[in-house]
Design a protein that fits this description.
This is Aspartate aminotransferase family protein. The protein has 92 residues and is α+β, with helices and mostly antiparallel strands. 38% of the residues lie in helices and 22% in strands. It has a 4-stranded antiparallel sheet with strand order 1-2-4-3, with helices on one face. The two termini are 25 Å apart.
Length: 92
């Protein structure tokens, strides 16, 4: 779902364990120290009710095995909202 987003370099996962690699907008990589993008996106995640594991510029997710499909949809919506808000912040 997120592989086409401009801030996502790679989306990977197995089962319920997943991670998103966060990359700088085109041509701006030199502006960001390692971990800055991950920390910025992590702040947006918290605003949208998500807790993730920030691994420098990769965000890891590991929901409980008893998660419902509706809860997964809620998480994916919050991730999308956070990515879009962070991208808007970076481009203004």
């Amino acid at each position: 779902k997120f592989t086409g987003h401009p801030l996502v370099g790679e989306a990977r996962g197995v089962g319920l364990i997943a991670a998103l690699e966060i990359v700088a907008p085109d041509g701006r990589a030199e502006e960001f120290a390692p971990g800055k993008l991950g920390a910025g996106l992590g702040a947006h995640f918290l605003k949208n009710g998500l807790i993730s594991r920030n691994m420098t510029d990769a965000m890891a997710f590991c929901p409980p095995m008893i998660i419902t499909p509706a809860q997964i949809t809620e998480i994916l919506s919050a991730v999308e909202k956070s990515l879009d808000a962070f991208q808007a912040e970076l481009t203004t």
